[in-house]
Write a structure and sequence with these properties.
This protein has helices spanning 20-39, 48-51, 67-72; strands spanning 10-14, 59-64. The protein has two domains: 1-16 and 60-79, no CATH class; 20-57, no CATH class. The protein is an alpha+beta fold.
Amino acid sequence: MSRSRKKHPAGGIAKARSDKWHKTHTSRATRHENRLRIHAEKEVMALPREQVNQYASPKDGHAWYGRKMVEKYPGLVRK
């Protein structure tokens, strides 16, 4: 396993080490809104995208690494 590599060289775009607090906040806000909608007897449930701006999270998404990037930084594509 010491030489194993990813089949698809993609990785997260991150400003932080973890985004656990953002996921917790998003889930909590969504559950709170759904409880309010249940008590108001609305039929449509809230989605997480409606509650929290997903682009404000510490991890914004994924990017594909090119061959030059993989050769320069081999640790990026480690499993």
